[in-house]
Write a structure and sequence with these properties.
By secondary structure, this protein is mainly beta. It is built from no helices and five strands. It has a single domain, classed as OB fold (Dihydrolipoamide Acetyltransferase, E2P). The protein has a five-stranded mixed β-barrel with strand order 1-2-3-5-4.
Length: 82
């Protein structure tokens, strides 16, 4: 999975230590994904219940959870409407 970058529009479900869990249901590289786990995301200051646009660097898929590093993020409410 190295070298790939993905964009996700998702909601933060909660925080656990330095990791954040995000809502996601779909398929990545042919594998079913139930959620996104952003590791080492404590510096991002995510808020549970808030929607975000995330640029992610996938690491692996464990038990249906896509484990990623957050490269960049922005609250969805901060995007201007077209």
């Amino acid at each position: 999975m190295k070298g790939k970058t993905i964009i996700a529009v998702t909601r933060c479900l909660g925080l656990k230590g330095e990791d954040a869990l995000f809502h996601f249901k779909g398929v990545y590289l042919g594998i079913s994904v139930k959620s996104i786990k952003a590791i080492n995301s404590s510096i991002c200051h995510f808020t549970p219940g808030v929607d975000y646009v995330l640029r992610l660097k996938p690491i692996e898929i464990l038990d249906g959870r896509l484990v990623c590093y957050v490269e960049k993020f922005k609250k969805l409410e901060d995007f201007p409407l077209l």
